[in-house]
Amino acid sequence: MPTLVLVLVVLAAIAVDSAVVFLGQRQLGDAAAAAANDAASSLSDPSFYRSGRVALDPTVARRVADASVVAQDRSGVSIDGPVDVRVEGRQVCVSLTGHVEAIFGRAIPGVPHATTVRARATATAAGDRGTAVQHRSLC
Amino acid sequence: MGGIEAVFFGLLVLVLGTLVVANAWGVIDAKVAAAGAAREATLAFVQAPAGSDPTSSARAAAVRAIVAQGRDVARMTMLVSGDLARCSRVVAEVRYRVPLIIVPVLGGLGSGFTASARHSELVDPYRSGLPRTASCATPR
Fold it and tell me: Is A24:A98 a contact under the CB 8 Å cutoff?
């Protein structure tokens, strides 16, 4: 019986670690969505005033997305590598990769100590006539 | 006799293990609730109508989010920084105090845990009715 109970406790610990990974995934998704939303406000003034076209400035969008990711809560997830920002027309896609450390998994042999999580989000600047980029075609 | 000892030991392991896991789960669950509340509060702040009190809107949104998660609002505290002005970065931090479940033998750890979460958004640089220019949207 103690062995059976121990197995149950280990299974519960794995369930908690899975919830931690889920939380980290959500945090990363929130960070990517917020960064994409912020970056979608980086409209290119020259493009608008010269041709009347609404488009994003890739340089500013990257800078704004970087600043946004830094400002987010990353206590449950560690971001690996740089923030991937892709801009096309008035649409921006932000991709993030990170890893989440297990709480109980470190003490259980055979269970990975960290899990890699990925998130990406797209935002499109609205208000122009027609669509320059198809919906979510970047990510 | 040996069988009864095994049953007692098994129950002990079960109770202690369940309490440890329940504590950990409680903190994670509170963190999820706090993260949701922080996100809602930030969005409510940056989307608040011009001339209104954005902090009140943020607080109301956070309370709604916490209540929707079946949590006690009295355990929540919230801090919002930033202005309702174009390009202003608004950061909302929500803290939620998690009651401690005392684990026998291992004992209690202080008065409980505090789960905190933070979310940040930029006020739309092209919103009308707000002070400041759309400086964040132009290269410097």
Answer: yes
The span from the CA of A82 to the CA of A64, in Å, is 13
Question: How many CB atoms sit inside 10 A of residue A109's CB?
Answer: 5
- pTM, whole model, 2 decimals? 0.80
- Indicate yes or no: CB of B120 within 8 angstroms of CB of A42: no
B93: confidence class by pLDDT, cuts 50, 70, 90: very high
pLDDT digits (tens, 9 = 90+) for A60-75: 999 999 999 998 887 8
Chain A to chain B, count of Cβ pairs less than 8 Å apart? 96
DSSP code string of B11-79: HHHHHHHHHHHHHHHHHHHHHHHHHHHHHHHHHHHHTSPTTS-HHHHHHHHHHHHHHHTT--GGGEEEE
Q: How do residues A90-128 score in pLDDT, each as one tens digit? A: 899 999 999 999 888 888 777 788 999 999 999 988 766
* Contact flag B121-A34 (C-beta cutoff 8 Å): yes
pLDDT at B134: 66
State the Cα–Cα distance between residues B88 and A66, nearest whole angstrom.
15
Name the residue among A16, A30, A73 with its Cβ closest to that of B28: A16
* Spatial separation of the C-alpha atoms in residues B67 and B37, rounded to whole Å: 10
ipTM score assigned to the predicted complex: 0.77
- Diameter over CA atoms, chain B: 81
